[in-house]
Each structure stands twice: as structure tokens, then as C-alpha cells.
Amino acid sequence: MKHNPIIASITEESQIGQAMACGVKRVNLMTGNINNLGQIVKPLQEAGKQVFVHVEMVGGIGRDAAAIQYLAEAFRIDGIITTKSNAIATARAHGLASIQRFFAIDTAATETALRMIKTCKPDEVELMPGLMPRIIRDMKQRIRQPLIVGGLIRERQEISSALQSGADYVSTGDSALWNWNCGTIE
């Protein structure tokens, strides 16, 4: 089976049906709240999608150990996305994969992120924004984890450039790009 490098970032609840129907294997959930999370997660899982919940963007989810334990036990999600290093160890303790997200706003931020990655050892790393081929190449050389890039990606050529620069996955909220790997995008 061919590796699908596209991750559907669901930023609006109206995108759930599209994510269920498209060829992506993974979704990053960045919408909803604690009250409707089950109604969002269960259909995605039934559609065969791996579900990663961004703990800072889903409403009502705390940023502490109890919240991550709740996500693991109540929803049986595949993993979390976070900018907080302390959440990585908690996710691991509860059998969840973790994605450490960071924003490369300058050299200092990137170096700080590299130190955090070495210390907390997330399963994957997400670099934001994903439109920086030189930074993608540099980051890929300096980490061992799979590299996800995302943010501001709106065109097929941007996906191609990110993958050619070393990204393992591209996360996009643009549902028109979710089937890119399946050859269905005009």
C-alpha cells in the first residue's frame, strides 16, 4: 500500500464528512469541544481514520495529565498534538502517540524547539509554517522523528516542495488538497 503523506487538519466541523470520505489515513482534529468530541471522533474512527486531537485547540480539553488520560480512555484516540512538552510524557504514559508542534518564527525559536524535541522525545514533530524548504531540510537532518509540516499550504506545488525538501507528511486544512496523493485534484 502506498504511503499517503497528506494529513487532513479538520479546522471546522463542516469538514468532518469530507475527511471521512477522502483518501487520507490520518486526521488532526482542531475543532469541536469536550461536549461533542465523541460525535466527531467515533465516525472518523469508524471510517478507518487515525485521529490525533490538538489539545490546545479543542474546547474544554485541559492541558494537564487528567485531560490527556481522559482522551485516551474515553475516546481511544490515536494521539495528541501539542505545543507543550509536558503533555508528551503524559501521552506516552497513556499509550498515545504525540506530535510536538512548533512555530519557526526565528532562529532562536527553532533552536529552542530542537532542545525540547531532544528532551521530551515526541513520536513526530510538526513544523509551522510548512512553506520553508530550507528550514524543512535543516530540521529533517537534525531530528530522528518523522517530520510533519503544515500551515499556510494552499497549493499542490507547496505540498510537492515540502515533500521534496524532506517532510514525511503535510498537514493541511484545505480539503481540496486532501486527495492530492490520490490524483483527484485538478
Structural summary, described in words:
- This protein has 186 residues and is an alpha/beta fold.
- It has a single domain (6-182), classed as Aldolase class I (TIM Barrel).
- 37% of the residues lie in helices and 20% in strands.
- It contains seven helices and eight strands, in the order βαβαβαβαβαβαβαβ.
- The protein has helices at residues 16-21, 37-46, 65-75, 85-93, 107-120, 133-142, 156-164, and strands spanning 6-10, 26-29, 50-54, 79-82, 97-103, 124-128, 147-150, 169-172.
- Strands 1-2-3-4-5-6-7-8 form an eight-stranded parallel barrel, surrounded by six helices.
- Strand 5 (97-103), helix 5 and strand 6 (124-128) form a beta-alpha-beta unit.
- The longest helix has 14 residues, at 107-120.
- The chain is globular and about 40 Å long.
- The model has no long low-confidence stretch (mean pLDDT 94).
